[in-house]
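Quick entry, no commentary yet.
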Amino acid sequence: MIEIDARGLRCPQPIIELGKKISTMNKGDEVTLLSDDPATEPDLSAWSRMTGNKFEKKSESVFLVTKLSER
C-alpha cells in the first residue's frame, strides 16, 4: 500500500502531494493519505468530483484514495 504522510502540511499541499503521486499510479491502485489539515476532507471531495477518483475517510486524519480515472 502506498502512503503519503502530509501531516503538518496545510492546504493545498496535501492535495498537491496526492496529485503528484496518483498521476504515477495505475487505475484501481489505492493510496493512504495522512493529513491533519481540517481542509483536507472538503478539498478531497472537490478533487474527487473533478478527477473522477474516490476517497473514503477512515479516521479524522486518514483517507483512503482509489484511482478510478486515467487522469
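second:
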Amino acid sequence: MARRLPLDEAVDLYLDHLKVERGLARHTLESYSRDLARLLAFLDTRGRADVDDVTELDITDHLVQLADSGLAPRSRARALVAMRGLFRHLVGERWLEADPTALIDAPRTAKRLPGVLGEDAVMRLIQQPPDTQRGRRDAAMIELAYASGLRVSELVTLSLADVNLNAGFVRVTGKGNKTRLVPLHAKAIERLRRVMEERAPRDPSERGLFLTPRGRPMTRQAFWKLLRGYARRAGVRLPTGDVSPHKLRHSFATHLVEGGADLRAVQAMLGHADISTTEVYTHVSRARVLEQARKHPRAR
C-alpha cells in the first residue's frame, strides 16, 4: 500500500519547493504560508488528516468560510492560488491522482489598472533635470526606469559590472535573486556613458552605478523623492496619485503592449515569473484606447 502524506507535511514540502526551487520572494512565501495555515485549520475541523482526504467540496466550503469572515475577494483569490499551487504540486509529485481545486473558479475581483503616463508626459519628465553632473545622473535614472522597465530596487542596486554599453544591455537582479538581460536603446546608452565617465566615488572600492554627491549608492527613497520633485516641476500628475518609479515601470510596459510588442517579450523584460502578471497591461491598453475614443470629436 502506498504511503499516505499528512497534510501538514505536504504544506511544508510545498513551501520548501517554492523557496528553494522556485525562488519566491519572502513576502510571497509568507502570504502562501498564512493562506495554507488557514486551510489546514479548516480541514482539521473536518477530520481531514492526509492529502487524499481532501475533496472539492472541502475547498469550496473553505472559500465560503473565508467570505463569511469578511476576507476581500482579492485575498480569497490569492488563497485559492496558494491552494491550487499546493494540490497541483502534489499531483505532479504523484502524491495525488486528481486536483480538488481544478474546477473551482476564482472569486471575482475588480481589475485595478495601474496609473500610466502618456509618452509626452514621460518625455517632459526626462527633460526636467538640469545639465549638471547630478542632473545628468537623475535623467539617466529616469530614462532607465522608464525605457527598460526596471523596479526601483533593481535600478538603485545596479553596479558598473552590470552595464554593457557595447552590447547594449544591463544585467538586472530581480525578485528571487533571478537575473535577466534588459536591452538599452541609443538614448539610454548615451546617458549612461556620460554618467559612467563623470562618476566619482569617494571610496575607490564602491562599484555602484548611481551615486549620491557623497559617493554612496542612491537609495530607493532618495530616487522616489527626486522623481516626485521633477514630476511636480514638469506639471506631470496622475489621477491615482504622485508619479512614482513603479508607475514609470507600468508606463513602459503599457506603451510596449500598445505598440504591438509580444507579451512574452514584455514578461521577460519586466522579470515576471508568471505571464498572468504581465497580462494586466493588455487590460490597461484597452482602457486607454477606449479613453482616447471617447475624446474623439464624433463621440461628443
